[in-house]
Amino acid sequence: MPTELRSNDRMRLLPLCLLLILMVSCGSNEQFIGTYKAEVKGSPKQAETVLEVKANGDGIWRVGVAEVPFSWYVKAGELRVNAKGGGVIVGTIEGDVIHIAFPDSKTLSFKKIQ
């Protein structure tokens, strides 16, 4: 009995392998999709800050009425936010909270609300 796969068998396995890869990659990002609100302590006058992470890899960062579009992806278990104007901001995930560290050493935590 030959141990090698025939060309026909390999062609049948290819779609299955591609589907499996797609399922694994999509499943890992679905947990991040949603709307998150910043948990701001100590400043009652600060405008509401919301992070909307969409399924298509886009997002919107809202501070008050101002909106900044971004794209996002997951790398090494971290949420990477690419600002449309350039630059990458890294967020770590703990349950339903995203912690985003800024270059000035300030960290902002966003809790999932939807």
What would you say this structure looks like, in words?
There is one protein chain. The protein has 114 residues and is α+β, with helices and mostly antiparallel strands. Helix content is 21%, strand content 44%. The protein is built from 1 helix and 8 strands, in the order αββββββββ. It starts with 6 loop residues before the first helix and ends with a strand. About 11% of the residues have low confidence.
Name the features.
114 residues, alpha+beta
Q: What order do the helices and strands come in, and which of them pair?
A:
Layout: H1 7-30, E1 34-38, E2 49-53, E3 58-63, E4 66-75, E5 78-83, E6 88-94, E7 97-101, E8 107-112
Antiparallel strand pairs: 1-2, 1-8, 2-3, 3-4, 4-5, 5-6, 6-7, 7-8
Q: What is the string of SSEs from the N terminus onward?
A: HEEEEEEEE
How many domains, in number, for the residues? 1
N-C termini distance: 55 Å
Oligomeric assembly = single chain
Biggest pleated sheet: 8 strands, antiparallel, barrel
Quote the beta fraction: 35-45%
Uncertain parts: 16-27
Number of strands: 8
**What structural class results from the helix and strand content?**
alpha+beta
- The mean pLDDT is 77
